[in-house]
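Lab manual, section 2.4: Encoding a predicted structure.

Procedure: take the sequence of the chain (203 residues), apply the prediction step described in section 2.3, and record the output as structure tokens. A sample record is shown.
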Amino acid sequence: MGNRLSQIATRTGDDGSTGLGDNSRVSKASGRPQAMGDVDELNSHIGLLLCEPLPADVRDLLVDVQHQLFNLGGELSMPGYELLKDDALLQLDTALAHYNAQLPRLAEFILPAGTRAAAQSHVCRTVARRAERMVVALEQGEAMRPAPRQYLNRLSDLLFVLARVLNRVDGGDDVYWKSARLARMQADDGPGGPGDSNIGAGR
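Recorded output:
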């Protein structure tokens, strides 16, 4: 790896191609480089989220996620290779159950807003969804393990939940979409009336 990183400007990509981990070269516009790029962008956005003041447990979780995304990107760069392990997905499932249990039921869809940390978590969520869509598109053309797709799907759900958690760090709340349904609920029941659980979280 040290030798691979000793020269950054190789000029080998000037023709619009890029090298994969198995030393093959493909167009930068093809599916694998696009999926790898989306995962890299997601990891970079999580790095930006880590610049915000965060609860220690959330910070530790996101640092672990960054390492797992690096494994995921490595797996995408080497067709037929396995780097993302089963315990990575288990970690997300465990975190989802833990943080979601702390949150009140949602009364309506929420906006990607609130504190800067929460808003950045929503940015991460949307990039995770794009990366997931790109991996799904890649799967339609070649055989792949389900782990990368599953990891990105769960991670997007977790980032939605973490955005809600981060909006409550200093006593804040979700920023609700001002729908006609919510207005009727508030008129009938007052703020905090019954609603569907975790609307908009899972897909």
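Check your result against the sample. Confidence is low (pLDDT under 50) at residues 192-202.
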